[in-house]
Specification:
Length: 416
């Protein structure tokens, strides 16, 4: 019965994941911004500013999490994101949205590396750190299933009033903050490094070839997914026109109402993929999964430019691949980072991801305005294939990691 506290902690962590993302906003977010008279270029600029602010804030907020407590940092992050969502109800101008994106960036940076660091150390203290990938993957799956349920109603809420999804999202953010209060704080403050020592840890970790190559390659892939995310909604609406055109009486169905169902489907598939991440790692090895899946996504991104009707299935591939790769990359990095300063180093990795996103998002936004969103998706796919090939040859990410990853995954099956 000695493991019982650890199992209770895992259950509480799953409850946190179930409330960590509202799901009400994402299916209609781009349409909402377009409805406030923003262009694709302006939307991409906001996303790029968000990435820049994340770059600037990752290490300071990671340091804050290491010093003040990772659970407390997560709590502040959830409240900041809730306040940002509430602000969208009143925002009208580009400047308004810019301020809200800054608040949103604060919430993101407080949570990005902190959640992974908290979970890894909590499992190490109460259960078994070797179960990280399985618990993290299942937790994200639970969160995605909960988010899928909320996404189903996002479209109808948007049809009733475009601000309703943001009000609902802010309410879930406050609920999530309440759940966090039930999670324990786990780090030993006396063991945390000084500011200078933390920067040295970041420099040493990111200069290691086995870490640097993975961070760069994963950042490139996450940047591809983020750039595609900005364009899913207008492309999906065009695809719906094709699908619904073949159905009698379908003209009475508003396309925005279908977006919630679509995103719920994305999220359900991603939930299954996240939950099976450890099994995939055990079957094919870490390197094959982390390097191979992004290549398949990039190739798939080229297809909608030829056949618009297949855009929705391609987006399903994009979402599920990211849900699979993310816990594998997180687990790989956690295994190679010391406990002291863990949140700081993981925040530095998230900073690198954000830095890579900036040119990808700006470029795709510009191509979407000059040509079309669907061609912008193809362009970012080509960019990944070229840059990814260079990284695989030059940095050789995860070379030698497959056997170790498979061995860890074999010991990471959920037992509760």
């Amino acid at each position: 019965m000695a493991d019982q506290p650890g199992h209770a902690l895992v259950r509480r962590y799953y409850l946190y994941e179930a409330t960590a993302a509202s799901g009400f906003v994402w299916p209609v977010f781009t349409l909402f911004l377009l409805g406030r008279d923003l262009s694709f270029t302006e939307i991409a600029a906001l996303s790029a500013v968000l990435s820049v602010l994340v770059v600037a804030g990752e290490i300071p907020t990671g340091r804050l999490a290491d010093r003040l407590g990772r659970r407390n940092a997560l709590l502040l992050g959830r409240l900041a994101e809730a306040a940002s969502l509430a602000g969208f109800v009143l925002a009208q101008s580009f400047a308004d949205f810019l301020a809200l994106y800054a608040l949103w960036a604060l919430g993101m940076t407080l949570a990005s590396g902190t959640a992974a660091a908290w979970l890894y150390d909590a499992l190490d203290e109460y259960l078994d750190a070797g179960r990280y990938t399985a618990v993290r993957g299942r937790g994200r799956a639970i969160g995605q299933w909960a988010m899928a349920a909320r996404m189903v109603v996002a479209g109808p809420l948007y049809v009733l009033d475009p601000t309703y999804p943001f009000i609902a999202g802010a309410a879930v953010g406050v609920l999530s903050a309440g759940v966090l209060l039930g999670l324990p704080e786990v780090q030993d403050a006396d063991a945390e490094p000084t500011g200078r020592e933390a920067l040295a840890l970041v420099r040493d970790a990111l200069s290691r070839p086995d870490v640097r190559g993975v961070v760069l390659y994963a950042g490139l892939f996450f940047g591809l997914v983020s750039a595609v995310d900005d364009l899913i909604q207008p492309i999906a609406v065009d695809a719906f026109d094709i699908y619904l055109g073949a159905l009698p009486g379908s003209e009475v169905v508003p396309e925005p109402a279908l977006l919630g169902v679509l995103y719920a489907g994305f999220t359900a598939v991603a939930a299954v993929a996240s939950d099976r991440a450890a099994a995939l790692e055990r079957r094919v090895g870490t390197r094959a999964a982390v390097v191979g899946l992004p290549v398949l996504v990039a190739v798939a991104a080229l297809v909608p430019a030829l056949v618009t009707a297949v855009a929705v299935p391609v987006f399903v591939v994009v979402k599920s691949a990211k849900a699979t790769v993310a816990p594998l990359v997180s687990g790989y990095l956690n295994d190679r980072i010391d406990r002291a300063g863990r949140a700081t180093v993981l925040s530095a990795a998230a900073m690198a991801y954000a830095l890579v996103r900036v040119p990808l998002k700006l470029g795709t936004g510009r191509v979407a305005d000059l040509a079309s969103p669907i061609l912008a998706v193809a362009a970012v796919g080509v960019a990944f294939l070229v840059a990814g090939a260079v990284l695989v040859v030059a940095a050789r990410p995860l070379v030698g990691a497959s056997e170790a990853g498979a061995e860890q995954a074999a010991n990471a099956e959920p037992r509760d």
